[in-house]
Design goal:
The chain is of the alpha/beta class and 386 residues long. Helix content is 28%, strand content 19%. It is globular and about 65 Å long.
Length: 386
């Protein structure tokens, strides 16, 4: 397939990586260079590429520049005990129009998804999430989207597609393949009550920053995701200053790295994006360094995937039946492999949503169900199917 829209990695970055240890990532991944050309992807499981697009960024112009600062730090890191092959495909350059850039992102992402390669997208404004989402159209499946962001980025149906309105386009534009949307880390004062009410009416999920300070609570949310979109603005300014919209509050560096690792561990996550990095506002490449570590943690997570759902049959689980007051029941399943929990929603055999039959949950959800408290995630998933 022709990927002429991809710019090879600069030779200065390659030369810099040669100075590092032979065990460093820069010396052990396949890299798209002018000299060697496009890498062979036959044995690759994860492909990194940048997007040099900022024309639809809101108050953050410059977020599609100098992604090599991230690579410089990523290449010098050491891999863990990994078995995953990684490729860096370079950067998608700006098209003649933003739509051209979206098309290039969707085309490349579709190609990678079809070849069971997980794309890791860096740089550019967060409206690139829409192009990532459209790449799933050809797979003819419903999609769960998770956004790590202080804002919902809903906008209105009349707004042009941009970094503050991409979610409304995902919800409204045909084909409508999204089954669920979850926001992790929103800050209430950045979002109107109307937006909160809209998410609630659609039975979507939103978790305030304070709710997920126990970072383990995000694991079931990410375990159910197909694609994950991270806005650098969700991280506090002191940790990641490279965003014109950053805030004094947000996730700490170790928290966003933990979230990245949970995304990698999820058996269902097939694409991961980090957006809104603006080098004009970075301090001593601090944000670039953090993003490199986020990518590292995502890759490590992929290496530790348990492959228990949706790869296993129900015979691989312990089943627990909890009876409700109305004589209905909720079936819980505990994986023999990982010890993680799921709960079952009622779906007809031929229903297009059957891949969502098991909803990730926690042991605490099971305990609450035994006390006749219906888990909120189960309730919302069930309501979507009514």
């Amino acid at each position: 397939m022709n990927f002429d829209f991809l710019i090879p990695i600069k030779e200065t970055i390659i030369a810099h990586s040669v100075l590092h240890s032979a065990q460093s990532l820069g010396r052990n991944i396949s890299i798209h260079t002018t000299q060697n050309g496009f890498p062979d992807l036959d044995q690759v499981q994860i492909a990194v590429f940048g997007v040099l697009e900022d024309r639809n960024a809101q108050d953050n112009l410059g977020c599609g520049e100098n992604l090599d600062a991230i690579r410089k730090h990523f290449y010098q890191l050491f891999p863990g005990n990994w078995h995953t092959n990684i490729a860096d495909l370079g950067d998608i350059q700006k098209g003649n129009s933003v739509s051209d850039t979206y098309f290039a992102v969707s085309t490349l992402t579709t190609f990678l998804l079809k070849n069971n390669i997980i794309p890791v997208i860096i740089g550019g404004s967060q409206d690139i999430t829409y192009a990532n989402y459209r790449a799933y159209d050809v797979l003819e499946q419903t999609v769960n989207v998770v956004s790590v962001d202080s804002k919902f980025d809903i906008g209105s149906s009349e707004d042009e597609l941009n970094s503050r309105s991409y979610l409304s386009k995902i919800v409204m534009d045909e084909p409508t393949n999204m089954f669920n949307f979850s926001n992790i880390g929103y800050q209430t004062y950045y979002n109107s009550q109307e937006e909160l009410d809209l998410l609630e009416s659609l039975f979507f999920e939103a978790y305030r920053l304070g709710e997920v300070k126990d970072i383990t609570k995000v694991e079931p949310i990410l375990r159910d995701a197909d694609m994950v979109s991270v806005d650098i603005g969700s991280i506090r300014q002191s940790e990641a200053p490279a965003n014109n919209n950053c805030s004094p509050n947000g996730f700490y560096g170790e928290e966003i790295c933990a979230i990245s690792r949970y995304a990698g561990i999820s058996d269902k996550v097939t694409s991961f994006g980090i957006y809104e990095y603006n080098p004009r506002h970075d301090s001593n490449n601090q944000t670039a360094h953090l993003m490199a570590q986020m990518i590292w943690y995502f890759v490590e997570g992929v290496n530790f995937r348990a492959k228990d759902y949706p790869y296993s049959t129900k015979e691989s689980y312990q089943k627990f039946i909890v009876l409700a007051d109305n004589d209905d029941s909720i079936n819980f399943y505990k994986s023999d492999k990982s010890g993680r929990w799921w709960m079952e929603i009622n779906i007809l055999t031929n229903n297009k949503y059957k891949r969502h039959a098991l909803i990730p949950c926690t042991y605490q959800d099971y305990l609450e169900a035994t006390e006749q408290k219906v888990p909120e995630r189960w309730y919302k998933a069930q309501r979507k199917l009514m």
